[in-house]
Amino acid sequence: NKYFQPIAEFRTLRYVGGRTPNAFENNPKEGLIGARIFPVRWAGVGFWYRHHFNQQDRDSFDRNTSFSSSVLIPCTTQGCTPTTIRNSFTGIPQGFNPSSDPHGFGVQAWIGRRNKRQAEIVNQFANVTALTLSDTTITLPCRPGFRPREGTACNDATTISVQTTAVDPENDVLTYNYTVSGGRIVGTGANVSWDVGGLAPGTYTIVSGVDDGCGLCGKTETKTITIAECDCVQACDCATLSVSGPAGITEPGSPMTFTANMSGGMSSNVTYNWTVSSGTIESGQGTPSITVNTDRSMAGGNVTATVNIGGTDPTCNCQTSASETAPVATPAGPVMTDEFGALSNDDVKSRLDNFFSELANNPNNQGYIINYGTDREIAAREKVITSFIGMRKFDRSRITLVRGGASPDGVVHTKLYRIPPGAENPAP
């Protein structure tokens, strides 16, 4: 306080850097406590006590440790003899004066004269003298899907430049402050921007003031702007509509996918309604893509998918319908891969190995084997075939054995067929 000042200090000093080191160098650690007393404004007294914590006193040396050294002095002239000088001591080095007093004291007193205090300076307020706006009327741009009526201009920019002019009689540093009824101020200082983007039509105000440390004590300036709607008319922006179908030819019984594609224009609120010429819509009705189920009755025909879209402006006469046609394959007939008569069992197995490889290369095909001959011959041939299927661990469910009756040439006869999906089985 103004009458009493306590003092407490701890100081440590370490010598570093390039220098000639002291053989008995001491990095002192010192403490000091004291006080200053000011009985009057123009006079006082101070006193303190200082202590050296790590002085080099007698206790700094081991009194029971002996040290010795020797120095050889060589000859510098002819006829002399080199001399060795030896020295030894115990405890404190010879000639070293240890410290014996770590204490220090100090006192000071002063008296003087003080000038009279300066009277309080009365602050003169800073005032705003002018507030300038780059625009006082903002005409909003047209909303999506509309354009300005011919001969009408709308503002795309929604930022107003603001310039404040202020004076302070004392030339104090000024802080500029802005208050707006809508939007936001971007920047600081005398020149800022007023962002009015997103504001509804109406009138809005801005108040400019400056602070020289007193607050907004001086004169402020207020300006008003008007935000108005633009005179807009409907703008037609039609999208291009198309339908894409499955690539290639679809096998009967397999699904077909049709997708509506829209490019350009406004398509955010579009609805989809699909119709097909044949088959049934399995999923996707009401979405841009549908899946259509086919069956064997549609083999060799076509499927036409048509999409009708809603949600467009009827006054614009935009395209609202598109179609795509995709073919359904004609089912393939049975494919005879081999035919043989009376053979040894090993030759029959060799023919069956080729047949199994053919089926393995066509995993969606079925195997169909017709055996001809007498009941005894057919039974023997079937036994060989069944046994070999088991030995090769081939899927028995993919092989159908059929008895074709008497052989046309009078001996056992076998025909091997591969049946594609949708194909009719051959007659014996």
Provide an overview of this structure.
The structure is a single chain. The protein is mainly beta. The protein has two helices and 27 strands. It has helices at residues 345-361, 375-392; strands at residues 4-12, 29-40, 43-52, 66-73, 83-90, 103-111, 127-133, 137-139, 146-148, 159-167, 175-180, 184-186, 191-195, 202-211, 221-228, 232-234, 240-244, 256-263, 271-276, 280-283, 289-293, 302-310, 321-327, 335-340, 366-372, 399-403, 413-419.
What descriptors fit this protein?
mainly beta; 428 residues; 4-stranded antiparallel beta sheet
Number of helices: 2
Overall pLDDT, averaged? 89
Low-confidence stretches: none
Specify the biggest β-sheet: 4 strands, antiparallel
N-to-C span: 124 Å
Shape: flat
Order of helices and strands: EEEEEEEEEEEEEEEEEEEEEEEEHEHEE
| Structure summary, number of beta strands | 27
Helix proportion of residues, in percent? under 10%
Radius of gyration from the alpha-carbon trace, in angstroms: 55 Å
Question: Briefly, what is this?
Answer:
This protein has 428 residues and is mainly beta. The chain has helices at residues 345-361, 375-392; strands spanning 4-12, 29-40, 43-52, 66-73, 83-90, 103-111, 127-133, 137-139, 146-148, 159-167, 175-180, 184-186, 191-195, 202-211, 221-228, 232-234, 240-244, 256-263, 271-276, 280-283, 289-293, 302-310, 321-327, 335-340, 366-372, 399-403, 413-419. It has a 4-stranded antiparallel beta sheet, with no helix packed on it. Strands 7-10-13-12 form a 4-stranded antiparallel beta sheet, with no helix packed on it.
